[in-house]
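Hi R.,

Here's the chain you asked about this morning:
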Amino acid sequence: MGGGLGEPGRRTAAAGAGLVAGQPPGHDHDGGPVDTSCAKKDTGPASRQIDQIVLLLGAADVAASKRFYVDRGLAVAKSLGRKYVEFATLSSPAKLALYGRRALARDAGVSPDGTGSHRLMIGSDAGPFTDPDGFAWEAASRRDVRSCV
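And the predicted structure, written out as tokens:
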């Protein structure tokens, strides 16, 4: 599981009021209404600039995965109990967030079993590791990153 635009169906710093894929507009992931009015709505002209990217990973146990990433040095920016956690990033527009695997699969309209790759590359000197949900993180050198672009 992976790839998302923020915390499904909730207000996010990046998106204001978000909607969930596969749900009728104005409804959250539980089917209830969502208040889509927000004092921070962007009223400026549309642009193609991306302010933030959130890598949303489906976790079987959000609390256990949260502990794993906190133990690796990530700081929690936002947490909604055992359902969702977003990690703080100091200077990067890319964020990591965890959401319950079954809820994420339901929102995305896919099987919670997952069949895609669980391999991620990051520009870091942290060394390779695998999280509790089997996401294998590998460090990429600058040369590796340039060859992928």
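Helices lie at 62-71, 101-108, 142-148.

Let me know if you need anything else.
M.
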